[in-house]
Amino acid sequence: MKRQFLWRTCLVVATGLVAFFYILSVVTSKTEDGMSLIAEPERIELKRWATKAEALYLSGDKVALNQWLEDLKQQENTWLAIASFQIKPIAGDEINTATIGGYHFGRSIDWKIHLYFERNPVMEIPFFQTKGSFLIKLPDRMRPGAYWLTTKIVLQILLPMAILIILSIWLYRHIITPIHQLEKATSAFSKGNFDVRVKKLLGNRNDELAHLAATFDQMASQIGELIASQRQLISDLSHELRTPITRLDIAVNNFETNNSRQHLERISRESINIRKLVEDTLTLAWLDNEKPIIQHEDVDLVDLLDVVIDDAKFEFSDKKLILETPNNAIISNSSHQALCPALENIIRNALRYTPVGKKVIVKLYEKPESYCIEVTDQGPGIPEQYLNKIFLPFFRVENSREANNNSFGLGLALAKRLLNSVRATISADNHANGGLTVLITIPITKM
User: How many C-beta neighbours within 10 Å does residue 56 have?
Assistant: First the structure.
């Protein structure tokens, strides 16, 4: 597993937090700079006061000028003055006053005001028509940054807290949403809804939680198929048992009649049939449940087929059985116990539906990395729509192939599952000249 969720979470959290705090620092700095400047209306008012002071100063009416300054001082509860200066050289080169300007007694109204200083600064507004300046200690009402403390708390505490809460909620939802989906699916599955799936509900996610959902879906699919198969198997078994049990009951009830020997034979035959049906069903259920992979010995398919063919010829002596094989065909990591009953069921099934005097051909040949066994009979064949169903338990095509009374439709189903246990495959198709051809493909070597 590539731990995509871990790396994605680290990327989002680390990159997001670094970017967030960088942006927060920039915003805080810009906000502080913006709040450090005197507001435009106050700057205009300060310039207007300076213009008024310069006009009174140029008029030469010092009494009026002092009175106006006193009134303004009382109005704004501050300190103010007018300063005039001249630059006088003491030594060295001649000073160009046009180049260096004049000395400053205070701060320009366009400069930033330090928000952390307790005292208000003295502001200087130079006169236009004379060498002098209007000086005023910045009134409290004009001091910028009145809400700086509140703004600082919002930017450095409340805003990061809100962003982190939102990020936590997003992470929580990102993690909990698929878990909730899994919880709902598990609850639905436990109530018998075996079709429930989770992966499709997670969209395009491809992380550990998506892999967990895919694993759950795979488990749900397998368990659902298994339970459905078991239910169908039990239903089919109960249906198949009714007929032999009924015949057994009739034979038992009539045992004491004149035909007791005939009824005893019927009881024996039906008991054998019932036992075989139950044993085959239990074997089929075990193969379906466990899906074992049996590979612990080397097998010569030629020798195995010779034994199976000899037994089949003895059992079906009224039919021809032709075997075509190479000198040997050895496969590794396989099992006699799985291959032998599977081949017996397939060959006997072909002989059972082949008319008397007709033949069944069994061919063994080699292909790259596998051996193939073809079993072709001369029976009636199977309708195309049923070819994929003949390997299902208890399936019989009564209308197309005359069923034997001792056949319960388990032979091919067992054969397929036994072959699957050695990683072999089986398929069926109608032969061009009539009859059915069953093809078995067995890998030569299994790693």
Answer: 19
Domain 40-144, CATH: 3.30.450.170
Task: Please give the order of strands across the beta sheet that includes 320-324.
Answer: 320-324, 359-367, 370-376, 436-443, 425-430
Q: What's the CATH code, domain 293-443? A: 3.30.565.10
> Do the Cβ atoms of 337 and 373 come closer than 8 Å?
no
The helix (run of H) or strand (run of E) holding residue 425 is: strand 425-430
Q: From CA 281, how far away is CA 236, in angstroms rounded?
A: 10
Angstrom distance (rounded) from CA 331 to CA 320: 28
Q: d(Cα 440, Cα 120) in Å, to the nearest integer?
A: 99
Instruction: List the structure tokens of 243.
Output: 């007929």
Partner residues linked to 370 by β-bridges: 367, 443
- pLDDT tens-digit series, residues 276-325: 667 666 666 666 666 666 667 888 889 989 988 998 888 888 889 999 98
Q: Where are the domains of the chain?
A: 40-144, 293-443
Q: What is the DSSP string of 334-372?
A: E-HHHHHHHHHHHHHHHHHTSPTT-EEEEEEEEETTEEE
